[in-house]
Structures are given as C-alpha cells and as structure tokens.
C-alpha cells in the first residue's frame, strides 16, 4: 500500500465538510420555497437531503479529527439564484449533488490503495451521491 498524505486528505475532508454544511442550508431553504400541488412530497425529500448533508458533514469531521486534522467552521458559498420553481430547485439540487460527487471522487484519488477504511467510506459516499443524482434526474423528467 502507498503512504497516505494525511494533510491533503484533511484538506479535502474539510472541503467536503464545508460543502455538506452548505447543503444543509441549501436544502432547508429550498424546502421552504416549494409551493404547489407536489409540495408535501418534495418538501419531505428536501428535508431528508438536508438531514443527510448534516450527517455527511459530521462524518467527514469525525474522520478529520481521527486523522489529527482540525474541522473547519466555515460553510461553502451558497449562490442564491432567486429562482424557486420546483424545476429550478431540482436542477440546482442536481448540480449540488454532482459537485459533491466530484469532491468524493477527488478524495478517492488520495485514499485509494492507501487506506482500506477511507477508501470504503469514500466509495460509499460516491454511491450515495450517484443515487441522489439519479433520483433527481428521474424527478426532473416530467419537466422535460
């Protein structure tokens, strides 16, 4: 196994943590902006996404501490588009999930063949983000 560069891994974990915390705010805001006949199931979905983003941020923070890193207190910048149709919110959510996916893939490159635990953690998160992206794409189909 190759040697793990914990400094680089901690930097990426902090980036993930900040982005996931931004997701908590993004999804919470989005859930408040939904109106119309499909409000209830979409609000529930967005609230689940917010809760999961918080969990992901906490998990990244725990790994940081375990690697002797220092968890950031920042959150990633969240762009307010002022577009709040269901379609716009779902498209922005998909964009958010795809960026999160790219962060986990970036982490995978640093931990692959260096730490079985970190590699398994990262692959699991990649799978979750891919699943969310597929769900959002399916939700967007009726807006085609």
Written account of the structure:
The protein is mostly helical. The protein has one domain (6-143): Ferritin, CATH 1.20.1260. Helix content is 74%, strand content 0%. It has helices at residues 6-33, 39-66, 86-111, 116-140. Helix 1 (6-33) packs antiparallel against helix 2 (39-66) and helix 1 packs antiparallel against helix 3 (86-111). The mean pLDDT is 96.
Question: Layout of helices and strands, plus pairs?
Answer:
Layout: H1 6-33, H2 39-66, H3 86-111, H4 116-140
Helix pairs in contact: 1-2, 1-3, 3-4
Name its key features:
single chain; 144 residues; mainly alpha; Ferritin; elongated
Provide the CATH superfamily: Ferritin, core subunit, four-helix bundle
Based on CA atoms alone, the radius of gyration comes out at 16 Å
The tally of beta strands, per DSSP, is 0
Unreliable residue stretches: none
Question: Would you summarize the structure shown here?
Answer:
By secondary structure, the protein is mainly α.
């Amino acid at each position: 196994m190759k040697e793990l560069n914990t400094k680089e891994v901690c930097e990426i974990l902090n980036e993930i943590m900040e982005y996931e915390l931004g997701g908590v705010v993004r999804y919470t805001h989005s859930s408040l902006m939904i109106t119309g006949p499909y409000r209830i199931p979409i609000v529930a979905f967005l609230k689940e996404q917010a809760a999961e983003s918080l969990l992901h941020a906490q998990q990244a923070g725990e790994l940081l501490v375990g690697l002797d890193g220092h968890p950031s207190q920042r959150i990633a910048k969240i762009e307010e588009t002022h577009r709040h149709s269901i379609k716009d919110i779902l498209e922005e959510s998909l964009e958010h999930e795809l960026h999160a996916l790219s962060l986990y893939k970036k982490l995978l490159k640093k931990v692959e063949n260096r730490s079985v635990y970190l590699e398994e953690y990262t692959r699991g998160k990649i799978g979750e983000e891919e699943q969310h992206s597929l769900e959002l794409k399916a939700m967007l189909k009726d807006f085609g």
